[in-house]
Amino acid sequence: MTGLRDPVRQNGWSISGLFVSMLLILNGCQGYQQSGSGTGQGYQWSSLYRQDIRTIAVPIFTNVDFSRGDEFALTKALIMQIEQRTPYKVVDREQADTILEGQITRVRKQTLSNNRQSGLPQEQLYTIRVDFTWKDLRTGKILVERRGFEQNATYYPTLGEGRSQAQLNTAEQLAVAIVQELEADW
Fold it and tell me: I need a labelling partner for 115 at 20 to 30 A (CA). Which of 43, 97, 100, 127 fits?
């Protein structure tokens, strides 16, 4: 009976191999069960963000660079990212538990490549550097403080992307990075 093939082994799998694979998968998933107040084994599920904070104030970042408009784009992006990614509600300073304040210290535009025929910039890099502090207004404690925190984004003037598009892209990426810094310590 050499012409007959075992349908289970057709793709290189045997019943015992399939069984062993299933056991490994099921055994590996046991560590991801939420542990209760019982044994204390397994992983604990909790928020990435502090549970003792409900509200945050985000005043417009100051800007000591000659480039204008970056402070508005960054503050708007920060508010949007905080509302979307965190459990915190953005409110006025008078009602806030915490405040996120910052200053744009440098904005830089750098040419990465030029068009060989025309010499015009083909790819450019837009960088925003900030210093920021997240402070608990109830206790006065500094929760997070970063200096020289920067983010950049590329843009392509030859494709019609201008400085304003680069400014928005960089501000959005910087806002995401700042919000990630607001995560609770492990």
Answer: 127
